[in-house]
Amino acid sequence: MIYILNSLIVPVNFDKVDEARIRLNRISLEEAKDILSNNKFISAIGHEGSAQVLSQLLGIKIPVNRVSVFFEKGDIGIHLFLKQRLPEGRVLSEEELKKLDFWIVRSEVL
Questions:
Q1: Which tens digit of pLDDT belongs to each residue from 25-61?
Q2: Helices 48-58 and 29-36 sit at what angle, rounded to 10 degrees?
């Protein structure tokens, strides 16, 4: 399964495994678009502003979907990773998010 998240957390399902190896690498927006191009992914983006910014950056609809997900072996994550920590309890608007530096990171449970 492919998941899209707005953090760098890789939520491994420890009910099914005792340990996991995770590969992380920074990718370009074009690489993320290619990975998500078949529209077979689960959004775990819990904030409207993040979903809107990602939709614009990737050129596909990223729905808001405030759910818990658990990765298993072979699962891939596409993560929006903000390069700075936000103040506690702060929810940014789409315009505020656009001004922040970020990376797009690909994770995979090996």
A1: 999 999 999 999 988 999 999 988 888 889 988 999 9
A2: 100
Which one-letter amino acid corresponds to residue 3? Y
Helix, strand, coil shares, percent, the chain, to 5? 20, 25, 50
Amino acid 100 reads L
Helix/strand/coil for 95: helix
pTM: 0.86
Could you count the other beta carbons within 10 Å of the beta carbon of residue 100? Answer: 13
pLDDT at residue 84 greater than cutoff 80 = no
Size of the chain in residues = 110
Structure tokens at 42: 């689960």
Q: Which CATH architecture has domain 2-109?
A: 3-Layer(aba) Sandwich (3.40)
- The gap from C-alpha 70 to its chain's centroid, in whole angstroms, comes to 13
Q: Of 72, 82, 79, 83, which is closest to residue 58 (Cα–Cα)?
A: 79
